[in-house]
Amino acid sequence: MPLKFKDRVAIVTGAARGIGKAIALTLVREGARVALIDVEKERLEVLKEEIEKKGGQVIAVSCDITKSSEVKAMVNQVLRIFGRVDILVNNAGIIRRGTIETVTEEDWDKVIEVNLKGTFNCCKAVVETMKNQRYGKIVNVSSIAGKMGDITSAPGYGSSKAGMDALAKTLARQLAPYGINVNAVSPHAIETEMSAQWSEERRREIIASIPLGRLGKPEDVAEAVLFLVSNQASFITGEILDVNGGALMD
Ligand SMILES: NC(=O)c1ccc[n+]([C@@H]2O[C@H](COP(=O)([O-])OP(=O)(O)OC[C@H]3O[C@@H](n4cnc5c(N)ncnc54)[C@H](O)[C@@H]3O)[C@@H](O)[C@H]2O)c1
């Protein structure tokens, strides 16, 4: 099988674990050179070694996406080493639990800062390069909570994800003339450390509400991202693609 992404360079944020790790491994499997971005330096290094042992080409960059200076330096490093940036996957994210009464202003700010502003910082840092290349694929890893709200996560989480959806649509319009596609995936109930906080009872309730009758795997999201960044999806932009086992059909 030819490697469809062998000339492509991708940046994946939040790549140290969970969905981001699965996205990075999937892109490497398809031949892409991948910049693994996270604040968790040690895990990143372990993943980098794991990939390099199998012959994949990756770099690991410790970067806090909320800091625009760190993000710019990270993109410059990717350009110095790999020479281009074709794909940006904005996956890094955090969640807080609670209600409008219990959530603190600090928690609200932190969730919006990482999920929404961090995504904005990364998009802003790659746009010039992608425009010059007249080629780019950006995918935001959003959440079902951005479309329908959520009962257990604090209000900032769904709000940040709805913001990521609107950001994807806005950039899809603004960047379409330059050959840049901007989309989002909207997962629900994926088995990662983020969702490991659920009680057994909550887990059973969630599975019961999913027509396909199971939780999602990080690889389920990764394959959807792979499709959106592939040339098979070249006529798709501004799409928020559900990856939720049928829990929401919109
Ligand atoms: N797990 C789910 O059920 C689920 C469902 C819907 C959406 N999502 C979304 O998918 C994405 C990945 O989720 P996951 O379950 O793999 O989460 P996770 O908590 O396992 O991984 C998130 C990664 O992001 C990194 N990160 C956090 N803040 C960062 C920052 N400021 N800069 C750089 N990296 C940072 C973390 O270190 C971590 O490695 C998130 O955006 C999440 O909101 C997850």
Describe this structure in words.
This protein has 250 residues and is α/β, with parallel strands linked by helices. Helix content is 46%, strand content 15%. The chain has eight helices and seven strands. It has helices at residues 18-29, 41-53, 68-82, 105-133, 145-148, 155-175, 200-208, 218-229; strands at 9-13, 33-38, 58-62, 87-90, 136-141, 180-187, 240-243. A seven-stranded parallel beta sheet has the order 3-2-1-4-5-6-7, with helices on both faces. The termini are far apart. 46% of the residues are buried. The model has no long low-confidence stretch (mean pLDDT 97).
What are the main properties of this structure?
alpha/beta, single chain, 250 residues, binds nicotinamide-adenine-dinucleotide, seven-stranded parallel β-sheet, globular, Rossmann fold, 8 helices
What's this model, at a glance?
The chain has 250 residues and is an alpha/beta fold. The longest helix has 29 residues.
% residues in beta strands: 15-25%
Order of helices and strands: EHEHEHEHEHHEHHE
The major β-sheet equals: 7 strands, parallel
Strand order of the largest sheet: 3-2-1-4-5-6-7
Mean model confidence by pLDDT? 97
The dominant shape is globular
Structural class of the helix and strand makeup?
alpha/beta
Q: What compounds sit in this structure?
A: nicotinamide-adenine-dinucleotide
CATH topology, by name, is Rossmann fold
CATH class: Alpha Beta
